[in-house]
Amino acid sequence: MDDILGAGIRFTVLFYNPNIHPKAEYTLRKEENIRYAQKLGVDFIDLDYDKDRWFERVRGLEWEPERGARCTACFDMRFERSALFAVEHGFTVFTSTLGISRWKDMNQINACGHRAAQRYPNLHYWDYNWRKQGGSQRMIEIAKAEQFYQQEYCGCVYSLRDSNRHRLAQGRGKIVRGVKFYGRES
After folding, report:
1. 146, 36 Cβ separation under 8 angstroms
2. What's the pTM value of the predicted model, to 2 decimals?
């Protein structure tokens, strides 16, 4: 965010993540975002935690793999709400930092963003590649410097289930949520 501010781009952080499970995980991730936005003097908008609507949206996709149809449905829901908020509040451009994660498919994310933007005239989805020019490394550097919470799964209950199954198959323990932070001893 500091690089964007340095370029003179004024923006607002919109937090809409009804997929994150459980609520304590959602709250922790949201509070980390608020803390950093406040530090940088960036506006922060928190939309509803409408997890029931999210579960309705992904019903029948519970066993889809990461990067599959469930993720597309999840991204579509979140981008549709973000696009609506943008239009309702006079924004003409919106984007997402979801693509900075190497675990995500940027083409999948960007397709969802463009689909949502196409619903409204004069709204553009900026499909910037946040990974390029050392963006992923910069994210890790900021996370360590800020001692951000280290997320070990995407966020949804199915991602947690599948991540734990994978870890157990490797002889590792299940994810212990809320305890691992960058730059801190666990």
Report:
1. yes
2. 0.91
